[in-house]
Design brief:
Blueprint: H1 3-20, H2 25-31, H3 37-48, H4 52-60
Helix pairs in contact: 1-2, 1-3, 1-4, 2-3
Amino acid sequence: MPPARWLRRERIRLGERLLTTGSTVRTAAAACGFSGPGPFIAAFRSETGSTPGAIRRTAAT
């Protein structure tokens, strides 16, 4: 796996952990080094097949 792909996957994993512990999408995006929620959402969906909002809603139930 190329280093850039590995790094992106690790950033998304961090974001997923943050989202399941109550962070907002905006906060998770910033903590993972994305320039904003839009790029984070796109990368998250590409990597996981789900949206950050869906992960937050699932974690809240």
